[in-house]
Write a structure and sequence with these properties.
The protein is an alpha/beta fold and about 450 residues long. The protein contains 17 helices and 14 strands. The protein has a six-stranded parallel sheet, with helices on both faces. Helix 1 crosses helix 3, helix 5 runs parallel beside helix 6 and helix 9 packs parallel to helix 12.
Amino acid sequence: MRVVMIGTGYVGLVSGACFADFGHHVTCVDNNPEKIELLNRGEIPIFEPGLDELVAKNTAADRLKFVTDPAWAVGEADVVFIAVGTPTRRGDGHADLKYVYAVAEELAPMLRDYTVVVTKSTVPVGTGDEVETIIRGLAPDTEFDVASNPEFLREGAAISDFKRPDRVVVGVESDRAEQVLRTLYRPLNLNETPMVVTERSTSELIKYAANAFLAVKIGFINEIADLCDQVGANVQQVATGIGLDNRIGTKFLHAGPGYGGSCFPKDTLALSKTATKAGTPVTIVDAVIASNDQRKLAMVERIITACGGSVDGKTIAVLGLAFKPNTDDMRAAPSLVIIPELQKLGAKIRAYDPESMAEANKNFENIVYAEDAYDCLEGSHAAVILTEWDQFRALDLERVSKLLKDKVFIDLRNIYRGEELAGTELVYSSLGRPGLTG
């Protein structure tokens, strides 16, 4: 099939490369000529494991192209995906759909034979209706359908998620559009991947509901971790005990400094605004949003307490800046709140992240960036693990102890176990495990 992917951000680039790897002919479009030039040189503007090889392979096979002018490709396409950003709108918190609607206006006169226009961007309920109205108004004689096909890609594991998904969700208003999308995703039949076919508005809501539910699990276990600190329980054992109930599941039950990234903060807020506007507030989600905002500030207090009540004049080594491992994405990362707050209190920051330091440098001031984890620790008074990169999971704790002036080791991801700390001089602090010390 001939596929056009409008937008070469995280979702568009990964999806386009994977569709090309399925054997489809994919044209990725972006209005940023520098980005297109970069991609045509084989350089990937984001860090996602395996994506550079996948793009190179399918570009060489002439199944994947990158262009700034979509006219010829849209005219020949079977499916056109809209995969542009839907950031939080300033002032009211709703998803900003101006980019989605601008694409609809642009591509309408380019459509020729029957085409399925698909919103891949995360959009509120009713967006597909508006996209259809825009295209119908500008191209009244064109045969087309508008469908919804939300993405469920985890940064750091996006290629695997695309090729071996738990499910594919499509929202359609015609049998013809459904058959086109079934053909597009036919390669997944070998994996017996379930395809959930709904009407369009249901598909749009599924994406928001899924992310909000996962955010609720994160917020829940973080508050249980706080309770564990007060009553002497172990949050990891609590998570195991409840997670083995298959009605609950073990995933997203890891205490930490709060969720971040490009999806959860934006999507929970957008769902809240949509529900409030509809007159049916999602108060559970509202509570999780507030809890997560407070969580990041609470981590600052934990660091201060672990450092003896003050960080003024102390150097804090921060291990991990991205919102999660295996990505360079800094969007809504806990570090964006925690580091400036520590600096306001007089702390000096040394930081190291395997992939995100260049991106982090756009967001922070007066930070010293280290060459590796041990370089980050050297001469610092205390260390804080903010992101659970694999290389932080097996640090030489004796060496860590020698490098830190005050021996304070704050693990906000609960990476280490008691037996690993035994015999060290480290003053160890973690979340919801009050009896665990060095």
